[in-house]
């Protein structure tokens, strides 16, 4: 099976150079960047590269894809769903807060602000 040219190029980068390139990304862009190809996903598989920090801006399309997925908040008790709202509000991304309210299934309270 032939390998895509962009995957060959990324896999041929020295690890130090690849680290330098991704060093210019916002930490909340890393989990999305990993989707570029298998080589990038393998190289950046640690928790620093796979975790969204909800109190920081998260790209709205990625936030919605995760939190609007069926069952995304099913296992979260009320306190954790409220924490989701608080952290998302702290990021300042209104679109994500709207998604979080829908996903959490609870109303905004004064603690969120």
From TrEMBL:
GO terms for cellular component: cell periphery; endoplasmic reticulum; membrane. One of its GO terms (molecular function) is phospholipase activity. GO terms for biological process: ceramide biosynthetic process; sphingolipid catabolic process. This is F-box domain-containing protein. It comes from the Eukaryota. It comes from Gonium pectorale.
């Amino acid at each position: 099976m032939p390998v895509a040219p962009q995957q060959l190029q990324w896999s041929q980068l020295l690890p130090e150079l690849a680290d330098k390139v991704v060093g210019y990304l916002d930490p909340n862009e890393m989990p999305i960047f990993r989707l570029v190809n298998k080589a990038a996903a393998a190289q950046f598989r640690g928790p620093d590269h796979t975790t969204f920090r909800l109190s920081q801006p998260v790209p709205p399309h990625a936030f919605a894809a995760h939190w609007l997925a069926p069952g995304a908040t099913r296992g979260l008790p009320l306190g954790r769903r409220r924490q989701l709202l608080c952290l998302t509000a702290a990021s300042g991304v209104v679109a994500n807060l709207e998604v979080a309210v829908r996903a959490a299934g609870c109303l905004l309270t004064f603690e969120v602000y």
